[in-house]
Amino acid sequence: AFAGYRGVGKDVSARERIDAALRGSEERYRRMMDSARDGILMFDASGIVTFANLRISTMLGLDENEICGRELRSFVVHSEGRRSEVPSLPDDDSGVELRRKDGSSIWTMQVTYPVNAKDGSRAGTLSIFTDITEFKEREEKIRQLAALAAEKSEAERANRAKSRFLAAVSHDLRQPMHALSLFIEDLRNAGLDEKDVRLLEKMDAALDLTNNLLDTILVMSGLESGMVTPNVVVFPVQKMLNRVAQAFGATAQKKGLRLSVIPSSAFVRSDPALLERVIMNLVSNAIRYTDRGGVAVACRRRSGHLHIQVWDTGPGIPDEFREAIFREFFRIEGDGAHRGGLGLGLAIVQSCAVLLGHPLELASRTGRGSRFAIQVRTAEPVDETRQPEELEEDENRNGQPVSFAGARVLVIDDDELLLESTAGLLRRWGCEVLVANSGAAAHAILSASPQPVSLIISDLRLADGETGRMLVAALRGKHGQTLPALIVTGDRSLKTAREIKEHQLPFLYKPLPVGRFKSLMAQLLNTKAAS
Question: Tell me, which fold does domain 231-384 have in CATH?
Fold first, then answer.
């Protein structure tokens, strides 16, 4: 018969309470870890990830199960700390670049703490990763800005060095060329026979070519280095047109070409020197490449602008070369090589036009000719003050001696060769010439001279940092404010021209254009030059 049950009972409520407590503790621990703003990884003693919080999962773009079981180095792109297969010690904070699932990266600051067992042995480590990507991006921008600043500083230093070099080259190369031009002019008036005169003319032409090539190279170098700054003013274009006609009339006639420069009453707003360089180069280029017909310069008003046009009846420019012709040293194969020049004329034209902000136009038909035009903003006419350097050039130069009899001229230059060449030419023109190689010598000569001098001709750059401009001011202050003076210089920079203009001094560039030199002397001496 059934007698009943017999068993053993066991109270498990305590275990359940413990398990529940553990689960609750783990959930609280998880919530606490997941609420942290920084990423957290836990590693075992061998460096394997055993725990990853929500933030590090978000930072890496990975689920926790994709992170756990891996070593930290499998996520590391770059570390600024010491290399190790296990995380570094607590005092070794370092920037760590981590790779995300999508291939991008994130910069973090890693701080690592040891996790020890009850017996004190190393059980693992805990690393905290703070997102410093934005900081790193700012740091990189600062680094780039610092690098750009350093590059800019180096470029400015190089430009200053180049500026000094170009100024020195401009001055030093023009000194002997200037002396040679004066010796040639002196010989021209020395009664040479016909054979020697022809040889002299060839020497003069070679010197002009050398001077033009030097000018071209120096202008292009100045434009490339950013040393040229436009000085924009309002001025009449007619003066510029007059100089174009004077400069190229004889050249065009020698080639059998008609040069037509149509007058214009327009005033424009631009840099006179740079704009004139553009027009001169365009006309020079047109004459060089035109063998029959002629070249014309015309101005047309359109919508507040003046279109200054240079037409020619040359061979025209094929379509495929209409951009290339503005490149440095470019010449159309088979056409330009025999015509001389460096291939820089149109490159300078474009550089000047860009610097001035004046649009440049080209229209051409092969076999018919070309038309270049530059567009300049017009301006209301202004009352002009005659600039000292804009005195008219003697257009009637025919090689005959000019007499300035009775004129006492003081020539100042620290170059003995230039003193000799200038003095020789002036004496042939009838001047009584006094020479000085320094400011002190000039003061001594004027102090000892029983008669006043009629004119001072001084080089701009003298020894020991002295300038002709400063010296003329000092001589006028001590010996008479009305002393006429003329400055000569090989420095063709706009800065130098403006400085001389500010002191209301007439000046000429080396090598001296003899016709203009005569005319300018005549006006300064208030005499009439016979030619």
Answer: Heat Shock Protein 90 (3.30.565)
